[in-house]
Amino acid sequence: MRRFLRGAAIAIAVAGVVDPAIARRAAAPRAVDILMPRESDPDHGYAVRVRERVAAALDGRAVLDGGHAPDALIAIGPAVPPDVPGVPLFTVPLVATPSLSIHRAHAPAGLHGQSAPVAVTLRGIGLAGRTTSVVLSRSGTAVDRITHYWKADDERFETRLGFVPAAPGLHRVRVRASTSGLDDPAIADVAVVIRDRRLRVLAYEPRPSWPLAFVRRSLEVDPLFDVVATVRTTTRSATRGAGAPPSLSALQADRFDAILAGAPEALTDADARALDTFVSRRGGTLILLPDRPFTEPLLRRFGLPAFDEVVLERPLTVQPPGPLLRASELLLPRPAGNGFETVRVVRHGDRDRAVMISVLRGEGRVIVSGALDAWRYRADPDASFDRFWRGLVADAAAAAPPRLAVTIQPAIARPGDDLTVSVTLRPSELTAERGVIEVPAVEAELHATGGNVRKDPGILGPSDPRTLGIRLWPDVTAGVYTARLRAPRAGEYALSVRAASTSADAPLLVADDVVHPASAGSRAATWAAVTSGGAVVTDVEDLARRITALDASESERRTRPMRSPWWIVPFAGLLCAEWALRRHGGER
Question: Which residue range is the domain that position 45 belongs to?
Fold first, then answer.
């Protein structure tokens, strides 16, 4: 017996020295990564609650966000899934009933002194019979509002709210939509970029023209416009203002955003060629204000349709929307003529006919006013001659592309949000020789401009605390570059781009409480879910069953039992028992 006890103790000691390993294969718990929308998304709070429900439904049957290679991905709401080959993707759309969401809120870049329109698109689900109040506010003060009554259970509503900025720069405005019966309002922040510049307009008359003379007077009293004029009184003499070219052959295309030409039938071939270059190469807008029918060469030069001259005893009024204009002598384009876009119409006879048209030509466009004698009715209380022409010319001049255009979307973001930079060089800045297009070098930098970020030495990078170089990638279109980056820390920034002899910039505002419009859902994510072996799932319990049904991966596990400290108990017990038997037999 004593030998057995001693041998067992020795065996334990030897096994402890050898330290044998035992290998076995076991099923590893399923690893699942849950992808969430960014905190700037209005659905983030709802997505957090859905994630809690998903975790409760799995109930420990999967390891969530384990940090290693996942067996499945779950994208909740507008989360952007990564490209992980061989891993099934399950998307969980966020649809609640009743609900209200802001799907789009956008404001184009405007000019100081003009009202900035904010376009808003709302979607209401299960809100039939309810009323929504949409408020546009700046720094907590309401600047515009509108009310909408929902008539269907799934309805979209588009509206425009106005905002008049007090100063140029980037302004943050907030759209807040509150609905009766819903606790949480829909919120979205919008960046309104206001430029401080005047619209440069040239009024050119190859002979004195009444239509252009009164339009020019209307623009000259508005500080938004920088108007210069050239009026040829005879073939050898002309009256021109400071900065106006003596003739169109001496025209500097970049000097003006729009050109108004009166008496276009009197333009020379050289004048027509210069105007055509301004439109097709510069991308500017040419507005023709005739007082008699066009000549055939001029129609061919600018690709205009044929016109019918109509003289009436009583004036006609252009149809809304927009400011009204009246005229009794009209040039109406024939419907069977060249393609054109209708700008305004009049009711002539039993049908509507275009009285003002726009024709695309190269990079720009040509606008033709067929209201020949509208200037006669400028004092008519039923018309708005000045407002009509100021609005038309302002829109035309603002649409002229600069030599270098820079945009950053979104212009207002939270730290860490994805930003897209777009840089476009005007075609006139490119050089084409022998079928090869030469593009000048383009450089981009992001600068911290706000005082709150200058004090932080690590805001952008270690080399320069206030500057970050941006790598631009060429697009498929010559002269177009794009870049993607993450929004830096909260503060005010400016994206500066330089190319050859020109430069441009775009502002960026980063704040910790920015809320973006709700995502309408990603078709790409839906397609990825189906093709990866996953699915689009709306029920949390169904999602848990699908995750559990996935084949669990097996792993080989090695254990070393002799490393357990509990082996000291039997080892000591065996030695004590052997010692006790020896003492009982009279041995030491």
Answer: 26-93+521-555
CB 353 within 8 A of CB 332: yes
- DSSP 8-state code for residue 318: B
Domain membership of residue 516 (yes or no) is no
Mark whether 369 and 351 lie in a shared domain. yes
CATH code, 457: 2.60.40.1930
Number of domains in the chain: 5
- Of 448, 421, 438, 581, the closest CA to residue 509 belongs to 448
531 and 488 together in one domain: no
Q: Are residues 191 and 288 in the same domain?
A: no
Digit-by-digit pLDDT tens for the chain (588 residues) are 777 777 787 887 777 777 777 766 555 677 888 888 888 777 788 788 888 888 888 887 788 876 667 888 888 877 777 767 778 888 887 766 788 889 889 988 888 877 888 999 998 888 989 999 999 999 889 999 999 999 988 889 999 998 888 888 889 999 999 998 888 899 999 999 988 888 999 999 999 999 999 999 999 999 889 999 999 887 777 788 888 888 888 888 888 999 999 999 999 899 999 999 999 988 999 999 999 999 999 999 998 998 999 999 889 988 888 888 999 999 999 876 567 899 999 988 788 899 999 999 988 999 999 999 999 998 887 778 999 999 999 989 988 888 899 999 999 999 988 899 999 988 878 777 777 777 888 899 998 886 544 333 333 444 444 677 888 888 888 889 999 999 999 999 999 999 878 889 999 999 999 999 876 555 556 666 767 778 888 778 888 888 888 765 555 566 777 777 877 877 788 778 777 777 776 665
Residues 359 and 245 in one domain: yes
For residue 515, being part of any structural domain is answered with no
Transcribe 484-539 into DSSP letters: EEE--SSEEEEEEEEETTEEEEEEEEE-TT--PPPP---HHHHHHHHHTT-EE---
pTM comes to 0.70
